[in-house]
Structure prediction request, 429 residues.
Amino acid sequence: MEILIKGGRVINPADGFDAVCDVYVANGKVQKIGENISVSSDALVIDATNKIVAPGLIDMHCHLREPGQEYKEDIKSGTQAAAMGGFTSVACMPNTSPVLDNAALIEFVKNKAEKEGSVHVWPIGAISKGQKGEQLAEIGDMRAAGAVAVSDDGHPVSNPELMRRALEYAGMFDTLVISHCEELSLAGGFMNEGAVATRLGLKGIPNAAEEVQVARDVIIAGELKKRIHIAHVSTEGSVEIVRQAKRRGIRVTAETCPHYFTLTEDAVEGFNTNAKMNPPLRTQKDVEAIIAGLADGTIDAIATDHAPHHEDEKDVEFAAALNGIVGLETALPLGITYLVKENKLTLVELLKHMTSLPADILGIKKGRLAESEDADIVIFDVETPYEVDVTSFASKSKNSPYHSYQLYGKVAYTLVDGKIVVNEGKLQA
Prediction:
């Protein structure tokens, strides 16, 4: 299909390109970017006047729940949710049932995604067998099968010697290690440790539960001169540890999630289980530190940590509720509303955190909107507010704290390999 995207504000964050012009797509590639492009009469024309045209977003941390937990989400529904949120590539975590800890399961996810997925899916394998933190998984085999990284996400690698060996072994295959930083001896609570937890009578989780392991893993990576990526950074202390590590030349990258720059522990008031996550929502001071970390480049990527759960797993007493929220369909609007509209980041900076930077960290050839690149494109509106309605989500699960929020950044079109997946805000039939 030939597609001409006319008159939008075209942004390629990787090189700072930002201009009102046209984009011509054919054969799955961006063929031309420029003013007043002429094409054949057979081309489909998309009017992008007053809209942003950008590279498709990259989510380097989400949960698609397949295999084993398809009642929460599966590859088909999860990638549809991704497309609705403007994502054209997602990297899915291995804490499925069974755990993605071998080449056969990595191949299963890839094959299923090719058949049923709406966007590109990049599997992440486990660091340890069964994510039990005892023996290394076959990292080389999983890499050869298509895993873009390894992580025991949802479970920390508590044994520092095992983390050391994981970094050494993964380094042999140029494979990224993503660390879920949580010191379990400090983390036996249900929300952030502080006044709100005390008032609600809930056991709290201190910032140190995250920061102790961030420091440990950065030190190990620095000693080995290996890459380490810190997942879902939530505290001021973690931001500062990563900042100082980068200044010392340690090969560390980091991500945060929209809920850590938009919400505080106050969202838990009323025992709101849709505000229960791990790491927990922190304080306003931590929120400000996360935003500062994004602004100065300490935090490289914005990931969703999309964590779908069935209603029955959230509609229980707070202590029993499972951690996590869905995030694919609100990530971009939250970034625009809370960062760009509040003059914390420019739109180009926000998009860089959601496109070229995560693509570079994962080592995938995506996240660019330029001639000869894959036609993975998102078109969205930054001027018209809309109301979040979780009942309309493409995700099977609706566990979001943002229901009824007024946000900016509604996705109008998502193109994957030059094919329209989302058309005028709806999934293409």
Remarks:
- Residues 208-224 form the longest helix (17 residues).
- The chain has 13 helices and 21 strands.
- The longest strand covers residues 3-12.
- The CA atoms of residues 8 and 285 lie 37 Å apart.
